[in-house]
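Action item from last week, closing it out:
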Amino acid sequence: MELNKRIGAVMLFFTMLFIQCFQFAAGKRDTIDVTYPTRPTETTLYFDGRYNTTRASTTVITTTEPPTQEGYIPAGSDEDLWSVSFGGTGEDVVRSIYYCANGDYVICGNSTSDDMAFTGLYVEGTARPYAFVAKFSSSGSLRWINSIYGNNICIANDVCELADGSIAVAGYTRATNLITSAPLSSSVIDAFIFRYSSTGDVLNKYVADGSGYDYFYSISPCPDGGYVAGGSSTSTDGDFNMTSTGAVLIKFNSSNTIVSSVTLNGGSGGTIHDVSVDTNGTVFAACVTTSSDGDFAQFSGLGAGKTDSLVLKYSSDLSVLRWSVVIAGGGNDRFEYICADNDGGCVVAGNFETKNNAGVTDGFFAGYPNYGYADGYAVRINSVGTVTGRRGFGGSQIDYITGVCRCSGSYVFCGYTKSSDFNFSTLGNIGGYDSFVTVVSTSDFSGSAVSVHPIAGTDSDTAFAICGSGYVYTVAGTTSSTDEFFWTTDPMVTQENTGFAVKYELES
């Protein structure tokens, strides 16, 4: 049994290594690789991250053992309402979270587990990792959970609720049996979208039919009942019909039928990493590329560095490009997360590096500090495409912004960092990567943050997504910690990780 597990782990490692190598060659990065410890027990825990001195689990275990630093979250920060962890003895990662109209939320992610929170989801003989999607109530109780699996890997990247209350999940797969009509080649990667009813029943499925490599990284609902998905493709045939390789932005109706599309081809590729649709149906997209030729030649300023970013605003039917903003300096600039502000503009967030990590900024970032390595950064753009605000999130180590949402009169950002100085001097660094949340007033976007606090323990913790509405927001990601904020999670050993979600209420 132990030998089989080791063989399976080796096969999984080389499969994922192949995908990461391809994405690197095409100018894409999905996540930063982090090594996580394992969870050996068979108990799924629900925990209160505010360091209440009582914890409860599905096996009704309770304790009054206090954490090592009770009340670690700084005074004056937002109040966390509840936290939930879910995982098994494999690797479990939450990639996306979405706030539903009725106050529920949905998550999606990927797992190699077949036990604990994922008992019954893995089908014997299918490939790992597989994808999962789950719906929770506003109080954190599980309503339903389903898996997406096949004869090869299935990766879920983003999830949303559509206008009719159904749930759409976007990702990619190497499986050839997700639908009855198999992809053209079993050696390629195909983008997919699964749509579920509000109660978790599969309504329909879409799998791209190109002979190249097709990925979906993001999905966002439209007011007309459809949705927009973004990603990348190398297929010169099928639904995407690229002329070379690059970014794709596709609008679907509620039946998973393509109604319009935009493709941006370039010699070095490109990827739509995130999409956001406002209440008028206007589409905003965050694109990352290393191309400055082909379709990308129309955007002046690309090619300034190793990797550049492009913010795009399209009409609701994708037929008209309203404006574009190039974010490019001499280093790697990856702005992969976007949030429409419903005033015709948006906020885009990500990270940037200076040329040769010398600390001297240029191009879009000229005159703005870089504290070392990758710094988190956010840009506010108004309805006519003018940059009206900037904000850095930097320290002397590696800092990433991985999500942004708008709640009431604030923008809320999540990310993870190794820094304990400069913008993160009030956080310190507990260990490895520390997840964090920061709240920024819409009226003082470039000023000081309202609150900055960690979601962290002494091991690596990475927040991957954030969503919200009104005065409530929820952060999701993965952790290998069992102390500090995560002091009630199960003991872990090596190589595995556990998903988490934390719900907060903004300060009045």
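Closing note: DSSP finds one helix and 30 strands in the chain.
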